[in-house]
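Structure ticket #2291
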Amino acid sequence: VAFTKLSARTTIPKSVRDSRKAECDDSERYDLGGQGIEGFSLGKGRILWSVPCGAGAYNAWSKFYLQQGNAAVVPHPFLGPERTASDEDAHSLVNASIEPEMGQISTFSKGRGIADCGTAETYTWDGMRFVLTKLLEMNACGGLIPDFWPQRIKTEVVLPAKAKR
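Resolution: structure written out below.
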């Protein structure tokens, strides 16, 4: 299910800026003034906020928050085999690439700079939540590009058929 990126002129809620200040120690150095914050309409009054938080040598991370209507934002977890909702950083993704027209967020956590080890994940919006639909993982840094990494998870999101009237 596709979702929509909000206009760059959209006002970022105070609760998003407060969460950034409280949870992103490195955010001012990495994203001066919060200019990289992006919002995405998920439908039904839900907005997903992507907040750049910091960067290292070859990885950058963002935290994600969900807002329902005018309510304050809450951390939005991305769940998987090693991620549970109770994990402190379950709402943090590394090198996230957001593709609204595909309804997906992809990540690529590099184990080292040449990107021959680490994890690559794809989360797909099913209209209610983001589902882990692909997980590639290479623990040994042996010179293989991600095209040749073992795939641990592959899931397809199947939406219910619309009822005919």
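Closing remark: The two ends are 22 Å apart (CA to CA).
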